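Tutorial, part two.
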Amino acid sequence: MVKDPLTLKYRLGEGIYYLGYVAGKSIKIREIARPIMEEIRDKTRETVNLYVLEENSRVCVEQCEGLHSIRHIVKIGEKLPLWTGAEGKVILAYQSLSFQQKIFEQVPFKERLTCLKEEIEKIKLQRCALSIDEREVGSAAVAAPIFNINGEVRACLSVSGPANRFTPEVVEKYKLLVKGGAKVISEKLGYRE
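Running the prediction step on this input gives:
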């Protein structure tokens, strides 16, 4: 809310308009994804997120909070970078080379950029991405791409939580669940391989 200093009346601020715009654009995918997200959350007990591509960022548009007392939470509507975190990397991997190049220019460290470029190829082969202690120390995530009817990736599904719970065995289980969920959402959006 923003207060007009002349009339002393309140009006909605730009942040609310932006959130409404993003939510409106993503309503169909959110409706389709929600029951699948709840199912994955119940199986993993971790937070499950739905992200969409918004310009040069990713935005969380839906979330099923984890059932553990300590969990990883992202604000709905928060803009996050594409070059870090499982969710950003999995969306970035399926964009055009020219788009990827624009994002590569945002990476602050040369070593990180080299790793990212190598990782993108693996992500496309495995159809999922992993991040541990990457965007935030102590957090981890596994993400899979969601394809639209045109075969484009404009969204992804992820499971996130404290890094200490993401052991190699757990990560493999989460990869299967997230990839399976993303595949079902993609098919409901009209995607056919």
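The radius of gyration is 17 Å. In part three we will examine how such features are distributed along the chain.
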